[in-house]
Amino acid sequence: MAFGPQPSDIPLIRRALAVYKVSSVLTGTFLLGLVVMMVTRYGFGVDIEFNGASGQLLALTDPDAITGVNVSILLLAVHGWLYVLYLACDFLLWRLLRWPFWKFVWIAMGGIVPLLSFFFERQVPRQIEAIIADLEARTAASDSAAGTGAGVSEVSA
């Protein structure tokens, strides 16, 4: 068996890539929100509160005085689950494309390093589309060579 993606994997790769694109943008967006939350929590000692007792829609409130929805905790939880989805897509692409393990780890950093997922959302699909195009071209070339070879032998016989 050849090392690398197989033509039969192309539909799965395209589906995983589509989910990866969405998950990378969502994960990156919530990671930026998480950075804001960490600055407010650890820099100023307050959490982000939604619809609290202050009457404001969003307010910076002492964590012990929060009566509304604690947006800081919400950002933590949502980013965590979105990162799980991001990692699952990363793993699936890594497995289907048969990339080296370091590439899986490198792409996984996109959900941890702020703004990196936005860079990967542009870079990774380009690489994968190039791999798919090359795979389809090689498959078409081998199919036409096999078809031409069969046609020549039938005509000459």
From TrEMBL:
InterPro entries: DUF3817_TM. It is found in: Cell membrane. Signal peptide: none annotated. Its main location: membrane. It is a multi-pass membrane protein. The chain crosses the membrane at residues 22-45, 65-89, 101-120. GO terms for cellular component: plasma membrane. Residues 18-124 form the DUF3817 domain. Keywords: Cell membrane, Membrane, Transmembrane, Transmembrane helix. NCBIfam families: integ_memb_HG. This is Integral membrane protein. It comes from Microcella frigidaquae. The lineage of its organism: Bacteria, Bacillati, Actinomycetota, Actinomycetes, Micrococcales.
